[in-house]
């Protein structure tokens, strides 16, 4: 569907003062080349100034009449196909600008010809004509706008010439060509070709083939085949290409009266290989280290049937105007600001291909994804079309038509496939195209475009005008009229070459915006459509490579933001299915919430109904951590809006950082009304929050006492901002959190644990929150944070969180014990509470208590931290290897350090080291340790380690150490129970007196006899 708007994209027009009748023309960077009709064999050059003013720069002769011509901005050269004596020639005119400076010197040379030193110095001041011989006559040409390479279409093949920079000497570099690649394409005679960024588009009368030349790596042995054949399956399938040579089809010779039509087909991407058009690559450049090797990728094949056109006879249905349009990456941010770091970069973002039948045009994206973007239906038969990033200009027999295009929308999605988010958006590619203008001209014949100018050639005579006034006569025979018209045109031609100045983007944008207002209250979709067109118009201008140097740069950026604001207004005010787009468009506009409210909310409007888009925008904006604070009046207006539109959201809206200035009393009144309909714990907590802001402690206590503490803790999950808010990326505690810290720290910790377990706050954010709440320095850990960590150990099930917490609390316990530092507040739980409620705190083993009982009482003030640390190490949860660096400050100098070291060695399986430590430092606890730890596989340590060590130490100390003797007796009693008598005897020291062990031996023997 094509929508028609009567806008004015065309501004002033000027006539190009050509001396001879134009046959062909093309545009350069700032010039217009006009090739005269057959008789003169000249090319006139005109400089195009502001408002389309033309200034003749000069002219130069050609070898013969020009059949085709093209200009390359890269290299600034003109290439032509010329005819002389029924032979066609391919020529490139380099350094042609010196002709306009008055120089008449011309150098003619063959491609690749080595420039002689004798006349190299004069090359700067003379035009150079490079002739490129071909084995077959050239039919069509195209220059790559990216690198200046040249592609020439011949029968059954394409020839690629690479643009080279030949260094003559230090002061002179000359442009030259090198024939580098030939694409042999069987059974294909190209009518037109387009070439850009190694993409090739070829059309015949009814076929379109798009290829891409891909760079390939050279083989490992350094060889590369000179020819590569791609495609061409042996068996023909339905829809395959047939040879256009008459000699191959004898049936066609016999049946001249019939037209054999191929079946229409469209093949995209990988499927296009099935087109059965084989391509063979032949490299013709001299092999060097820098030689590039290519392979062919098929992108698109489409065949049309001649009877598809509703205009004229079958033979009139032919493709025309194939073009490749590059779109470059934009430097625009989501908020419409220009990113300066991209200013010097020009990155190709997307590539588009356009081709047309007489009645319909097709625009394809051939970037990452090959797809049809738009189809253009013409009001009458088209003659030629030209595609620009902003428009499609089409000429028919009577009109110059201007259509909108979707290239900028497709390119934006190519740059960011997820562009339609809460941050940024872009009108859809599927948006209906529209005709902005149908401008009447007499006899349009050819068209081209550059910058903001359209060059239009018209040819008409008196007979043509007379015929248009008699439509009944013209309808009799289209074919006859065509012949008559051409004959008259040759006898009495009337021609004009116009430069039509298109209006500036800003001017047309303003007109589109003004035009959209006529639909505001009548046709919602038309209003959005027109504003979307205006947005895409500006977006396309920003993507233009010349944007960086444009005088309208700031105006375009301003218009971009303004268009986003207008679209945000539409999606906010109108009831549309895409109402959610109000949010990203307003964000891209850079408008603040206050400014949006002024645009949409009327003063004194109490009961107005607001659409979903506006509510969606406000809800998301207020639920985010914004530094913008609404005024008291704006805040109260927002409360009124949500009370009528979505009362459930009121508690969440009130807690927004943007609503800090709202009147608490007004907010409470709204909440009381909502509570009667929909009570909730979050609403109760919000009322308590407001009561604190008003200083009404009675109301606060009433609200807090109305729910159980467990319910209140869970209620904070529904609205975390009651406790903490973000300001400039930092978590800040609220007045509510400060009050809870003083009056109900347990509830505060429980609520924070609930927030963490429900992914409402990260562990590091909670650390910052408690440190700020307790006014602690960066390196100081307040007890309330320790309470949070310990509480989180009780409920958390995530292993990586648990290990992190275990190391944190261990480090803090060690820091306090080693520095004799008391907690800043009383811990919420005792060690016994933690042991009973958390598996990560284990029961303290008896031998640890035994060591501590004989220790000094000076550690009694830090008993809680000591017992918590010992309890942690008595469990199996903590990784001792990871904890060892944190335990370093606790040496073996005291009994606390001894327990820690022995616990660590026991966890690590170093039982012998633990026994040595106890023998040396605290033998009283040795038996307790052995009884608890030396079990199962470690039981042999009783007689292999403990018994020999006790015997040795007892012998050295004698009776002076009763603890050792007692321990030895206990050890013997264990050994005698576990070992046979013979094994027991073998363990006795050889140099000892048996009398000491006789009672034990006698007891063992009696026990054995009894059993």
Automatic annotation (TrEMBL):
- Bias-annotated ranges (Basic and acidic residues): 235-246
Q: Which domain of life is it from?
A: Eukaryota
Q: Which residues form a coiled coil?
A: none
Q: Which Pfam families match?
A: HPS3_C, HPS3_N
One Gene Ontology term, aspect cellular component: cytoplasm
The BLOC-2 complex member HPS3 C-terminal domain covers which part of the protein? Answer: 507-1008
* Domain BLOC-2 complex member HPS3 N-terminal as annotated: residue spans: 3-486
Q: Which InterPro entries match?
A: HPS3 (IPR017216), HPS3_C (IPR029438), HPS3_N (IPR029437)
What segment(s) does the record annotate as region Disordered?
Answer: 224-247
Q: Which residues form the signal peptide?
A: none
- Name used for this protein in its record: HPS3 biosis of lysosomal organelles complex 2 subunit 1
Source species of the chain: Ficedula albicollis
Organism placement in taxonomy? Eukaryota, Metazoa, Chordata, Craniata, Vertebrata
């Amino acid at each position: 569907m094509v929508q028609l708007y009567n806008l004015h994209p065309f501004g002033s027009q000027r006539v190009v003062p050509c001396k001879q009748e134009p046959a062909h023309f093309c545009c350069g960077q700032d010039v217009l080349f006009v090739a005269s009709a057959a008789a003169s064999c000249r090319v006139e050059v005109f400089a195009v100034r502001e408002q389309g003013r033309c200034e003749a720069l000069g002219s130069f002769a050609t070898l013969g009449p020009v059949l085709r011509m093209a200009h390359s901005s890269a290299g600034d050269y003109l290439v032509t196909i010329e005819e002389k004596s029924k032979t066609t020639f391919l020529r490139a005119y380099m350094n042609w600008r010196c002709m306009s400076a008055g120089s008449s010197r011309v150098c003619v040379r063959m491609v690749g010809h080595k420039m002689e030193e004798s006349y190299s110095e004069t090359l700067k001041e003379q035009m150079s004509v490079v002739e490129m011989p071909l084995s077959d006559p050239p039919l069509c040409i195209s220059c790559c706008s990216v690198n200046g390479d040249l592609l020439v279409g011949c029968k059954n093949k394409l020839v690629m010439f690479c643009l080279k920079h030949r260094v003559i000497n230090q002061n002179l570099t000359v442009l030259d060509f090198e024939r580098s690649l030939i694409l042999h394409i069987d059974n294909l005679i190209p009518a037109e070709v387009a070439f850009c960024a190694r993409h090739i588009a070829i059309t015949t009368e009814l076929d379109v083939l798009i290829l891409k030349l891909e760079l390939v790596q050279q083989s490992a042995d350094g060889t590369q085949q000179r020819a590569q054949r791609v495609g061409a399956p042996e068996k023909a399938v339905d829809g395959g290409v047939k040879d256009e040579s008459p000699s191959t089809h004898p049936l066609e010779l016999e049946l001249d009266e019939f037209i054999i039509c191929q079946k229409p087909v469209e093949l995209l991407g990988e499927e296009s290989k099935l087109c059965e058009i084989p391509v063979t690559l032949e490299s013709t450049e001299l092999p060097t280290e820098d030689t590039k090797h290519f392979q062919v990728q098929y992108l698109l094949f489409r065949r049309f049937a001649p009877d598809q056109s509703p205009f004229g006879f079958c033979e009139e249905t032919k493709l025309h105007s194939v073009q490749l349009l590059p779109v470059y990456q934009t430097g625009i941010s989501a908020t419409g600001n220009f990113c300066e770091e991209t200013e010097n970069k020009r990155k190709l973002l997307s590539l588009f291909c356009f081709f047309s039948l007489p009645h319909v045009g097709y625009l394809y994206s051939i970037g990452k994804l090959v797809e049809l973007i738009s189809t253009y239906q013409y009001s009458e038969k088209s003659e030629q079309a030209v595609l620009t990033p902003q428009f499609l200009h089409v000429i028919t027999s009577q009109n110059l038509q201007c259509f909108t295009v979707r290239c900028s929308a497709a390119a934006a999605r190519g740059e960011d496939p997820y562009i339609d988010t809460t941050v940024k958006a872009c009108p859809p590619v599927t948006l209906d195209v529209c005709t902005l203008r149908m401008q009447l001209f007499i006899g349009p014949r050819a068209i081209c475009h550059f910058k903001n100018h359209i060059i239009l050639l018209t040819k008409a005579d008196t007979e043509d005008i007379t015929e248009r006034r008699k439509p009944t006569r013209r309808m009799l025979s289209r074919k006859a009229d065509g012949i008559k018209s051409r004959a008259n045109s040759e006898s009495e031609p009337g021609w004009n070459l116009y430069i039509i100045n298109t209006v500036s983007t800003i001017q047309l944008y303003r007109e589109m915006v003004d035009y959209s207002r006529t639909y505001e209250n009548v046709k919602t979709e038309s209003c959005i459509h027109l504003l979307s067109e205006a947005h895409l118009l500006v977006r396309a201008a920003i993507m233009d490579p010349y944007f960086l140097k444009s005088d309208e740069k700031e105006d375009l950026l301003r218009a971009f933001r303004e268009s986003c604001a207008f679209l945000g207004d539409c999606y906010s005010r109108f009831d549309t299915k895409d109402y959610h787009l109000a949010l990203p468009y307003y964000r891209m506009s850079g408008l603040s919430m206050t400014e949006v409210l002024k645009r949409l909310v009327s003063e004194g409007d109490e009961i107005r109904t607001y659409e979903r888009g506006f509510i969606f925008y406000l809800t998301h904006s207020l639920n985010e951590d914004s530094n913008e604070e609404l005024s008291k009046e704006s805040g109260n207006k927002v409360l009124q809006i949500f009370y009528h539109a979505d009362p459930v959201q009121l508690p969440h809206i009130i807690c927004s950082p943007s609503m800090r200035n709202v009147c608490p009393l007004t907010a409470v009144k709204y909440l009381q009304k909502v509570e009667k309909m929909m009570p909730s714990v979050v609403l109760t907590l919000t009322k308590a929050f407001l009561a604190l802001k008003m200083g009404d402690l009675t109301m606060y206590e009433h609200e807090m006492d109305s729910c159980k503490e467990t319910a209140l803790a869970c209620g904070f999950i529904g609205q975390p901002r009651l406790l903490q808010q973000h300001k400039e990326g930092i978590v800040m505690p609220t007045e509510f959190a400060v009050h809870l810290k003083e009056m109900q720290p347990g509830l505060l910790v429980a609520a924070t644990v609930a927030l963490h377990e429900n992914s409402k706050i990260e562990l590091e954010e909670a650390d910052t929150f408690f440190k700020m709440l307790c006014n602690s320095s960066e390196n100081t850990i307040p007890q309330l944070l320790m309470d949070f960590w310990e509480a989180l150990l009780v409920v958390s099930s995530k292993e990586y969180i648990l290990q992190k917490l275990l190391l944190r609390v261990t480090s803090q316990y060690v820091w306090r014990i080693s520095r004799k530092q008391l907690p800043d507040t009383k811990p919420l739980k005792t060690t016994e509470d933690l042991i009973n409620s958390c598996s990560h705190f284990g029961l303290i083993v008896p031998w640890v208590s035994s060591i501590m009982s004989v220790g000094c009482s000076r550690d009694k003030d830090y008993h809680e931290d000591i017992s918590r640390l010992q309890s942690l190490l008595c469990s199996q949860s903590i990784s001792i290897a990871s904890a060892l660096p944190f335990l370093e400050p606790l040496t073996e100098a005291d009994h606390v350090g001894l327990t820690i070291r022995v616990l660590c060695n026991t966890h690590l399986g170093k039982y012998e080291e633990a026994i040595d430590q106890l023998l040396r430092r605290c033998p009283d606890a040795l038996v307790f340790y052995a009884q608890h730890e030396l079990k199962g596989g470690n039981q042999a340590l009783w007689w292999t380690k403990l018994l020999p060590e006790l015997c040795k130490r007892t012998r050295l100390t004698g009776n002076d150490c009763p603890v050792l003797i007692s321990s030895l007796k206990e050890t013997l009693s264990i050994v005698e129970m576990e070992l046979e008598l013979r094994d027991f005897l073998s363990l006795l020291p050889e140099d000892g007196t048996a009398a000491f062990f006789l009672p034990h031996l006698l007891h063992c023997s009696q026990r054995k006899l009894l059993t």
